[in-house]
Amino acid sequence: MKKTKEEDSLTVKEKLESGLYGYGEKNTVAEKKHREFISDCVAQGICHWYNIIFKGAFYLESLDRLNELCEGKILAIYNCEFDSFVLSGSPVVIDSEGAMHKSNGPEFKKDFQFRGCKFNLLSICSVYFSGEFLIEGCEIKNKFELRNVSFQKFITRGTTFKGRSLVTSWFFNGAVFEECVFEQEALFQGAVINVFATNAIGAPPMRVLEEGDVKEIDVHTDEPKSFFSNVLFDNVRFEKPELITFESIDFSKADFQLTNLIGVRYLDVKFRQELLNRNGLIHDVRLALEEKKQWSVVINDVKRKYKKASKLEKIFLGKTRRFFKVLVEGIKQLESEVNKNKTKQHLLENNYRNIRMSMEANKDFVIATDFYAGEMDAKRKQLSFIGRNILSVEQLFRLSSNYGQSIKRAICVLSLMLIFQMAFSCWIYSNEPIVDVLEHTVKFFTYQKSDSLGSSKLMSFINSFFRILIPIQVAMLTFAIRNVTRRF
Fold first, then answer.
1. Which of 220, 302, 392, 444 might form a disulfide with 387, Cβ 3.0–4.6 angstroms?
2. Residue from 59, 66, 178 nearest 131 by CA
3. Where are the domains of the chain?
4. How far apart are CA 450 and CA 439, in angstroms?
5. Beta-strand (E) ranges in 275-395?
6. SS3 assignment for 421-478
7. How much is the pLDDT for 210?
8. How far apart are CA 187 and CA 248, in angstroms?
9. Where are any strands of DSSP class E within 180-325?
10. Rounded (10°) angle between helices 282-310 and 365-380
């Protein structure tokens, strides 16, 4: 049906209110009217859509018209309803280093926002968003799909995913999942980009190039794809965690806050943190760097104050008294700074425990044992200065075997115990023949009674002390061997 001149003169808002897009239904766009609606929006420069019901499948197979529509503006969609929203592009081109070239592939150049919308299906495939992509306060009933999509910045906040969710995408400058609910199955997977290349069947992690040419490549990699970059899961709730799967993902820059991950499945994931020299969470790295900075500030402050105070003292005793006074002040200053992070350490402990339990259920003992060490270390750092650094069960556990992770440390500590016991024996029985002292030491280690040397109350006390410590350290060594052998 041809449009009349009167209809052509109407604005998009007037057409919606009069029902011209919806065959009589106000604020509705029928499936056959989608293209007309887009054309009118482009012609009139309207890139904010409010309270519209889109019937049928809403397909956007080309971004050219949207870029034309949103030139210099943001595409914002508020409180709209879609049966299906599908935005699809062509495969992205990457170079021999796994880098995406900006000039190739479909690109949406401005911010894209969904606020308060309802979808039966939301599907976006093979698109690069160079602005911010926001989904806030939305409800997706059946299926949510982000397949081979590249985001400079991705935020989803207060959104409920009632159906199946599939995310195989890249987040270059971070992503936020905040106060979201996943009620059904969800798969977060390292994206596999289609590559214009000879015999190319995979691609290494993708990054944006400032300049350079796209080359034909022949790539095959079994490494997990780089999925997350500074991604935050904040207060995300998985209603059925047994249906949630993270596959082929590098979590080294992912942060979890108030998100219960117990029961979630992990397949071929990485949590490696070079600063910690083990698998761990990026939040732990940030706190470790902050603690290192605090120590550096306190040490420099103690040195400065002592240097200034020591000039007022002439004798050694006075300088020593000044030093300990300044040291105590420095420890109090450090303690006040550490107390500010105790809540963060408590949350970190819970995160480590949640993921450790999931890893143990997945039989991934490599990451599970490292996360157990992280859990215990976060628990130790919540203690007072003396408990945290000198005397506590957690600190002794750390010193004896690095929370059951280091066989080498456990053997070294056990060897030191044996050497100290032998040295005490040689000192106390210095007048006795060395052969008799060695015989006494061997019998002590093998729990035999020795009558070759005379009795000594001091030696009896030392032997009793080491008879308690050595079996404990042997148990620490056994625990460390068990943890390491479980990895293979």
1. 392
2. 66
3. 1-56+68-88, 89-107+128-270, 283-391, 408-485
4. 8
5. 278-279
6. HHHHHHHHCCCCCHHHHHHHHHHHHCCCCCCCCCCCHHHHHHHHHHHHHHHHHHHHHH
7. 33
8. 11
9. 181-182, 186-189, 207-209, 231-234, 237-238, 244-247, 254-257, 265-267, 272-273, 278-279
10. 40
- How far is the C-alpha of 288 from the C-alpha of 207, rounded, in Å? 28
Half-sphere exposure of 159 (CA within 13 A, CB side): 27
Give the phi and the psi of residue 87 in degrees, each rounded to 5.
Answer: -120, 115
DSSP for 3-61, please give it. PPHHHHTS-HHHHHHHTTTTTT-TTEE-GGGHHHHHHHHHHHT--EEES-EEEEEEEE-
Query: pTM (2 decimals)?
Result: 0.70
**Segments of the chain with pLDDT less than 70:** 1-8, 61-73, 89-106, 190-230, 308-319, 447-456, 486-488
* Token duo for residue 115: 């606020």
Amino acid identity of 330?
G
Q: Is the dihedral of CA 437, 441, 444, 448 positive or negative?
A: negative
Contact indicator for 388, 440 with CB cutoff of 8 Å: no
Q: Is the dihedral of CA 334, 339, 343, 346 positive or negative?
A: positive
The first and second tokens of residue 451, run together, are: 């009558």
pLDDT for the residue 92: 44
Please, which residues have CB within 8 angstroms of residue 23's CB and are 6 or more apart in sequence? 30
Q: Is 148 exposed, middle or buried (0-12, 13-18, 19+ CB in 10 A)?
A: buried
Tell me the per-residue pLDDT of 312-323, one tens digit each, with 9 for 90 and over. Answer: 555 566 667 777
Report the alpha-carbon angle 409-412-417, nearest 5: 125
pLDDT of 64 reads 65
Q: Residue 354 and residue 359: Cα distance in Å, rounded?
A: 9
Q: Are 47 and 82 in contact (CB under 8 A)?
A: no
pLDDT of 138 reads 92
What is the total residue count of the chain?
A: 488
- pLDDT score at 89: 64
What are 161-165's contacts with CB under 8 Å, separation 24+?
A: 161/186, 165/140
The pLDDT, as a whole number, for residue 6 is 53
Residue with structure tokens 């604005």?
Answer: 11
Please name every residue paired with 167 in a beta bridge, in sequence order, or none if there are none. Answer: 146, 188
Q: What is the pLDDT of residue 444?
A: 72
| CA dist., res. 111 & res. 134, Å (int) | 8
State the chain's maximal CA–CA distance in angstroms: 120
